[in-house]
Amino acid sequence: MSMPVDPVVTTAGKELATDASATGKRILVIKLSALGDVILAMGPFAAIRAAHPDAHITVLTTRPFVDLMKASGFFDAIAIDRRPKLTNLREVFALRRFLRNGNFDRVYDLQTSDRSGFYYKLFWPSPKPEWSGIARGCSHPHANPERDSMHALDRIFDQLEYAGISKVPVPVLAGPDIDLDRFGIRSPFVLICPGGAPHRPAKRWPAERFGLLAKKLADYRLTPVLIGTDKESDVLGKIDAMCPKARNLMGRTGFLDIASLGARSVLAIGNDTGPMHIAAAAGAPSIVLFSRESDPKLSAPRGISDNAVSTVRESDLRELTVNRVMEEVRRRLDLDE
C-alpha cells in the first residue's frame, strides 16, 4: 500500500487535480470539526485507507485541520469546506460542484451532522455515491438506535462496521522530532492544558488551582509546561505568576508541536479540551478533568494503550480540590506523598 506523501490542497468548489489515467476508486471522507473529534478520527482514517489501499482518497475538512490531515499521510487530496450558510447560494453551489464533479464512488461521512447530511442531498439529480452515515436514504446507514449514547470513537467504529470495515485501530498522532531546548524545557516535564472553549467556562478548572498544582509538580522536580493560545493569556499568566518554574509556551505550539511534546512528557493534565486529545493520541499518560458540562463516557480522549487516560470528574469544577488531582498524579507517576 503506497501512502500519499504530498496531498493536493484546494477549496471545496474548485476542481481537484488528479491523474486522469487513475483507475482506482475515488473515496471522500468528511470530517469538519472539532479538534477532539478530528483526533479521535485518526484511527478510522487509517482503517479507511487500509480498506481502500489503491483508491484516491480526498478528505473534506475545515482550514484549522489541514496540517493534521497532511501529517496523517492517509489522504491524496484535502478539500477545505468553508461551511457556507445555506442562504449563500453561490458558495453552496460551489460546494455542490465539488461533490458532483469529484466522481466519488463512496463517501464516509464521519461528521454525521445535519450539515454533512445535507451534503448528500446536493448530489441530486445526479446518481448518489455509496454513502456511510446517517443521511436519509443513503446506501450504508448507521442505523444503530444506540448511536447517540455511544462514545464518539465507538460510534465511528460501529458506523464503519456497518459499512464493511471491522478492523479500526485506536487514534495515534505522531508529531515531528522536537528540540526541547528550543522551548527551554527541562525533563522530566508535565504538559498542562488549562484552557478550553471560551463559551463554556464551566468546563475549565480555575486557573488558581492549576497554579497550585504546578507548584506541587515543581516540588517533585517535574517541570510544568503550559500550552494554550493567546486568547488564554489570562489563565496562563496567572499560572505562570504562581509557579516561576513553569514554562509558559503560550502561542508557540501548533497541533503537531503539542503531539511532539505529549510524546516526550511523563504526564499530561488538562480540562476536557482538544489539546488533551492530541496528547493522549501522541502517547502521553493523561489525566482529564470533567465537569457536568460533558460526559467522559461520551467524549473522553482515548490513549494508545489501556488505562492510558484517567478522568477526574466533579459536577462543578470550582469544587474540585488540588489535593484530589494530586492524588491521581501520584498514583499515575508512582510518587510518594
TrEMBL record:
GO molecular function, one term: ADP-heptose-lipopolysaccharide heptosyltransferase activity
UniProt keyword annotation of Repressor present: no
The name this protein goes by in its record: ADP-heptose--LPS heptosyltransferase
Any single biological process term in GO: lipopolysaccharide core region biosynthetic process
Gene3D superfamilies according to UniProt: Glycogen Phosphorylase B
Record-linked InterPro entries: Glyco_trans_9, LPS_LOS_Heptosyltrfase
Keywords: Glycosyltransferase, Transferase
An annotated GO cellular component: cytosol
